[in-house]
Every structure is written in C-alpha cells, then in structure tokens.
Amino acid sequence: MQVSCWYDYTCQYSWRAQRWLTRVQEGGGDLSVQWRTFSLKGANRDPAAPSPFDDPQISSLSVLALALAHAAREADFDQYHGAVFAAMHADGRHLDEGQLLAIAADAGVDLSAFEENRRRWLTAVAAEHRDAVVRHAVFGTPTLVLGGGATVFVKLAEVPPVHDDVALWQALCVLTTCHPEILEIKRPTPQP
C-alpha cells in the first residue's frame, strides 16, 4: 500500500510514527511510505505574524530541517531522516544550524548547492505544507493518507512493540478505510 505521511522533525509523535512505519516495512508489511514535510511552526503561528516560509535565510531551525529533507531526497533521504529524528528525540539534542548541515552532509547533501538554492528548498517545504492543508485538511503531525485517500492523524503514546507493528498497521487501515464514520478516537488519561 502506498502511504503519504506528513511529519515535522520537532514532533515526537512524528518520530514515533517514523519508527513504527519503518518497522512495519521491515517486518514484511506491504507498505511504501512517501514522507511529506509539514511545518508545525507554520501551522501554529499567529496569523498576524510573518510566515516562516517568507524568510529566504530560513531562520527557523525546524523549517531548515524540513528544507534539508527536501535536498536529501536527491541524496540519502533515509539516512538524513533517521539521523535528524534520532538526534532530536532519541538523544534529546537541540540541534543548531551547523549540526543540521553536518547531518545533511553525512547523508550526501551537496551543501554548496543547498546554500546557493535555499529559496528553492524553502519553496518546496511551503508548497508541500500548503498542499497538505488544501487537499487533505492536514492540521498536525503525523498525518497519514492511505492509498485509497483515507486520511488519519495518529498520535502514538509509544512505538508499538515489535510483535504488534504489522497487526496495529492492519487494524488502523481497516478502521480508516472501512469505517469513515469514525472521525476521532481519543483515550482520556485519568488523573491519579
């Protein structure tokens, strides 16, 4: 099944979804994921504030990480994608621009070409973000669009256990594609 997943590197739920979907693929699940950028900074900004897509210098580190992901599509995207998520969430690092550029360079991104064309990469992030909002009503990350067009926002409390990866994926597909009447499932957390 072809799936698009909108993500933001700053989102721990996107990181969990990335780990889960990667394991589903590795575990024999019939799944091909297209990773799509979505800026939470852009989505959550005050409408009166300037858009993070308007700054050609890409002053937002979260947007820079997404722009570098677009450039990494011409190099080793999987390496870049996994390394940024791991650094931010597994290692708990607050990356700066130099560290993001180093991760991109390790993944084969031509940094000279990236610097010369920052506007190109920023425009690509903005276009993918806007397309998500207009075509799929994406409001947060991670949001999945399954092969048949069913769209679902998924928030994992933790990555499913290895033996449950594929089963959870199959259950999500059934709920999402066969039961469009379900708009939201939420588990309230009782207070101790």
Q: Can you tell me about this structure?
A:
This protein has 192 residues and is of the alpha+beta class. The chain has one domain: 3-Layer(aba) Sandwich (Glutaredoxin), CATH 3.40.30.10. The chain has helices at 12-26, 40-43, 61-72, 77-90, 97-106, 111-116, 118-136, 165-178; strands at residues 2-7, 32-37, 143-145, 151-153. It has a four-stranded mixed sheet with strand order 2-1-3-4, sandwiched between helices. Helix 3 runs antiparallel to helix 4 (77-90), helix 3 (61-72) packs parallel to helix 5 and helix 3 (61-72) crosses helix 7. The termini are far apart.
Low-pLDDT runs of 5+ residues are none
Helix content: 40-55%
Form type: globular
* SS-based class: alpha+beta
Please, how many helices? Answer: 8
> How much of the sequence is in beta strands?
5-15%
What is the terminal-to-terminal distance? 41 Å
How much is the radius of gyration in Å? Answer: 17 Å
**What is the N-to-C order of secondary-structure elements (H for helix, E for strand)?**
EHEHHHHHHEEH
Strand order of the largest sheet: 2-1-3-4
Q: Spell out the CATH superfamily.
A: Glutaredoxin
- How does the major sheet shape up? 4 strands, mixed
Beta strands, count: 4
Q: CATH topology, which one? A: Glutaredoxin
Assembly level? single chain
At a glance:
The chain is of the alpha+beta class and 192 residues long.
